[in-house]
TrEMBL record:
This is Ribosome-recycling factor. The gene is frr. InterPro entries: Ribosome_recyc_fac, Ribosome_recyc_fac_dom, RRF_sf. Belongs to the RRF family. NCBIfam families: frr. Residues 21-184 form the Ribosome recycling factor domain. Keywords: Cytoplasm, Protein biosynthesis. Responsible for the release of ribosomes from messenger RNA at the termination of protein biosynthesis. May increase the efficiency of translation by recycling ribosomes from one round of translation to another. It is found in: Cytoplasm.
Length: 186
């Protein structure tokens, strides 16, 4: 393994952590409807629990309503019940073979709770990025100890690793600020 390999691995792992963070942020509710909100809802499909996206088409009808269209008519009642029983506090309504899921307006208190949740997710993502940085620095130190790199190479590599880390942490901060603005928008 070389210092270039360590940097490549570092970049890939940090990018993965940012993608995971974006997925976690998408699950936090904002004032607008988002099909990703229903990703965690599980439906009983002939005896096994599957995500709602595997038994129905989930789409946006308008900015405050999600449309769920089960592929089998017999699944409509089960899908509606699964959404109603989920921890999301949604109240779906059937209209023929389409299930409309209106997003209730959020109170100011609830919006503040969700911004705190977004900040917490951001801090968790930063911790992951810093742990990846620590692992990369340790790998570089091991290369120096094994005489595969010089101490000058180590200093340059640590500086590069810090730049990559700072860039990813700044991206996490930007995503948190954007999500907070999204949540607080009425």
């Amino acid at each position: 393994m070389t210092i270039a390999d360590v940097k490549t691995n570092l970049q890939a792992r940090m990018d993965q952590s940012i993608v995971a963070f974006k997925n976690n942020l998408a699950k936090i509710r904002t004032g607008r409807a988002n099909p990703a909100l229903l990703d965690t809802v599980q439906v009983d499909y002939y005896g096994s629990m599957v995500p709602i996206s595997q038994v129905a088409n989930v789409s946006l009808i308008d900015s405050r309503t999600i449309g769920v269209q089960p592929w089998e008519k017999s699944m409509a009642a089960k899908v509606e019940k699964a959404i109603r029983d989920s921890h999301l506090g949604l109240n779906p309504a059937s209209m023929g073979d389409l299930i409309r899921v209106p997003m209730p307006a959020m109170s100011e208190e609830r919006r503040k709770e969700l911004t705190k949740l977004a900040r917490t997710e951001g801090e968790s993502a930063k911790i992951v990025v810093r742990n990846v940085r620590r692992d990369a620095n340790e790998a570089v130190k091991k290369l120096v100890k094994d005489k595969l790199a010089s101490e000058d190479d180590q200093k340059r590599a640590e500086a590069d690793i810090q730049k990559i880390t700072d860039r990813h942490i700044a991206e996490v901060d930007q995503l948190v600020v954007a999500k907070e603005a999204d949540i607080m928008a009425v």
